[in-house]
Amino acid sequence: MRGKAEGIAMAQFVPQYSSHTLAVLTPKMLIMYDIEKGLRSRHRRESSHPGEQCVLSRLLSTSLHPGPIGVCHSSSSIIVGSSGTVRSVKYSLLTAHSVGGKKLNFDWALAVGDSVVDIQITQNESLPTIMVLCRKRLVALTSGGNLKFSFDLQCIGLALKSFNHGPTNYIISIVSTNTGALLVLKDNILMWTSHTPFVARYLDLCDAREAICMLTVADTNQMVVGYLGTEPSLYRIPIAPNRSVDYAAKRAQMAEFEEQIRLFGGGGVDIDGDEAPRATINVHADLQTETKSYMIANTKDASLIPLTFFIGDVPPVDPHITVAVHHESTQLILTASLPLSLIATPCSVARQAKHKVTLDVDGPTHDLTELLPDITSSPSHTNQIGLQILTTDVVVCILTAGKSNRYRIQSDSLDYLYLVTMKLMEGINEKNENARINVNFAVSSAVEAAENYVQLETKYEKEKEGLTKNAAEVRAMQAVLIPMTRNTKYTPLANLTLLIETTYNRLLSAIDSHAATGIRLNGLRRSLASALGVLSLSQHSLGSVAGLHFFEHTQQSLMTRLAWASKDNSGDIARMMLALLETTGPPIRSLMNIREEEEDEEEDENQDFKMGENATLGAYKEVSELVEEGDEERGREAEDDW
């Protein structure tokens, strides 16, 4: 035989030619051995060859490439597989159809979803079965095109042999895969498996020495004949465990566990769950450190103990560190501040910024190299410096106005204004302990940050509710599907598969959206905390309710927290913020109208402005007194002079 055998079959195709013939199809030649064989060429043409003469040829317009063919004698039809579709056509219709006539109509067509490799038809008089082998699936169909069962393959199927067996006429199928495995199935149940030293390209049954043998054609052009027990050796898969549960053994096992818990669990704390107090503890920690215990032999001598801190993805908003030291008889709480060199690095100065903080000092200003010695010592940073916050794109600039005794901290982001302001104030206090510092900051920046936070917080809660509903849908669907999988002949439905895929995709999308909103919410929380920290500095009430973290680490929303702290339930964030600051510091009705002044104003212009302001207030007071006394004419003259 020349070339590789693509297919071997034996059938009675033409009624006028009664003898059976063996046909071998090679890539270049069709060899006939006294049989009738139906085949299809690469030109989408159905042909019948008795001997070497072609007697029937029909064009199938719906076929894209040659595929396997089978004959169903009970329905007198030809089964054709091509392009992932199995079609059936009556033999009488095929012979009566003209070559150049109308389009050929099939009896039925079924899409199997994969390339068809082989077709086997069990010739049962009562109910014939069409076995279709695809690349990754075995499908059983009735003569009318209805699905009976299917079996999914883990490897690519190459050859198939199916036949009826037993008094109940169940179907035995032998499948060859590309890994050299032979699978023996009883209907859709895998009964046997075997691994051969070759890849079987063709499977069939034969009689040898009064025993039913299996004929295989290997990919090495060798023909192997064997029977069960010799070649190939087929081994039976172990029987699946029984699904029945031994409840008596389970109860005995649980009783044994309870006895062990009772004997060895007495060392714990015995607390009644109904009477035990409950509390929710929220620990605020911008920095994380390991818990370590130290043993100091001599407490009179000084000892240096290193502490290792771990910073997260971004630097903390608050530079302060609190260390608690506990002893058997006493305890001590120490407060330190992070060096600015661990948080920022010098960079170029940006003259324009969105958010600004002004520090008015009653004494002369100092060089920034003296106030921030750990970050810079360059002469170019005497009056101005830019600070690039590490691991971020945030730039905070510090400008000095010596004539007006002012420092200005400005940045396009609110995140680190409080941190830099605190470090600058610490440097000023080290130079002059009696210095009086007045912090000016626009409340509108904090109000805007609070409004953005409330909007995103509302969106976060809505997404959380939607995520809970999606998770409940998935759990309900799983509760319905799990009992269905107990059926050994369970076949997933297309609409159910689509519903499961859609539900899971909706759940995954909700999880991704909720996580992204949470990340944005954490960023806005940092901005709002920094803005509230600067406002607390402007009100000289660092220990008040309006501190840096008054709304964090609670189970309440920002609106609920503001309503509680400000005692205002109006729902207006600006009004609630003003009420909050008025209750924790001196009156600030004029804070909303604070306007930043340029640092390069001349000192003489400031003096003229103050003198003009005093003159204006004096004239306004004089006019008011004259009007109150009833002398309207003199009042109008004074108003004209003013």
Automatic annotation (TrEMBL):
Q: Which residues fall in a coiled-coil region?
A: none
Q: Name one GO biological process term.
A: cilium assembly
Q: Where is this region: Disordered?
A: 596-615
- Please report the stretch or stretches of sequence annotated as the PTHB1 platform domain: 339-445
Can you give the residue ranges of the PTHB1 N-terminal domain?
51-232
Can you cite an annotated GO cellular component? BBSome
Membrane-crossing residue ranges in chain numbering: none
Biased composition regions of type Acidic residues, renumbered to the chain:
596-606
Signal peptide extent = none
PANTHER family in the record: PARATHYROID HORMONE-RESPONSIVE B1 GENE (PTHR20991), PROTEIN PTHB1 (PTHR20991:SF0)
This chain's protein is named Bbs-9
